[in-house]
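We store chain and fold; thus.
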Amino acid sequence: MYWMILLLSVALVVAGQSLPDAVVAAPFMNLSWVVQQTAVDAGRNLFHQPWPPNVRLPIDVNVTRYVMPAPWRLLFARAVPVDVSNPTGQTALYINVYVALNTAFLISQGLMRRDCADVVAVTEWGDPLPTWVEDCNTAASRVWVMIPVLPPGTWRIWLLHGCPSCRLATDSSSVFLYYEDMQRPPRGILAGSASYDAANRWVQLTPPTTSQLGYLVYTIPPVLPSAVYVKFRFMIRDCSSPPADAVWFGVYNSDYVGTIEDAVRGGYHLTADEWQSRVCFTKSSDGVSPGIACVPYSFSQEVWYTYEGYLWHDSGNARGVVALNGAVLINATDPQPQPNMVNGAGLVVFGGRAGARFCRHILGPFMIAHLHPRITAVARQPVSPPPPLAPPRLGFVTYRVYVNSTHALLNGTASPGVLAAP
């Protein structure tokens, strides 16, 4: 199951047929899941190919959950209680939260491994949550956590660290909606002029020639509540004079074919436009209408830029925030949000274009998170040693599973004991 990290022991029983264990059991954790299909398409494998692209098949499954916490908590020097608040009024699925942490100080005090591989988030019942540390061994690290099911309200999780013998680092792709470090070809679809450069470890969206369109496409959008955070690096080089045209990030588009920086198909674009020397938040569909918000910005060649974008739906509006190299340039509202955003539908796309003028448009590493600004994580005073977790308990819940060719998405009510109120 894609949202479980490599610390859990998971047994899947689908329509009476056992599947191989999805992950490896940790020596300090005794956790098992039994998943049985109760309706619909009884002979199929729930979590593997083949499935038609973009087809979601709803299947009801019963999950019986046994958690048997062991003294594994004693391996860690400290535990940081973190209160996660969801005031949106709806259950958030696969939601990301992060906690700012001065890992450089903790490492200097011997309270954390130098590679941050001993940092793990757990629930009150001892379930590890996918965890990844951004910018380890700095004063401004972010500990990212993915919570599969977060009901409304305030819930407590714990950040454990200080275990020199532990290597608990999670694959970042299990924490985020999408994560590419460019050390290997990206998992998305390369279309048009886009190609992966294995020598330089980047994606070239357009080569340095005229009339080029290149895309990197992912078919699964953020689930509800609609919100997405993107952080990516890009560069332009080998340009004509003047350089042209643009790089953009698009989300909630119904299709990528025919889209350019200022022409969406049902979604939103966050653009970096060297031809017009500007950055935009736009939903223009004709390529010429003004964006929701644009600000002037002059781009240089042979320079890596860090682009951060934040889009979310809240209180009947679409909100967009854009930062470049850490400076916020746009903070704007669209009072008529796109229906695809409201419904959590569409694609996730990076695009590049060259017209009568050109540039080589290069896309570097990126992360795409399901991060909502109203869902917050607040760290409390650390505890040493970690306190006992909740006693073993049994939970039972029926989930509805949506299956497609890329992911198995869980959607349903939370099991008793998934999280605990502080």
Remarks:
- The helical segments are 103-108, 339-343.
- The radius of gyration is 22 Å.
- The chain has two helices and 29 strands.
- Residues 103-108 form the longest helix (6 residues).
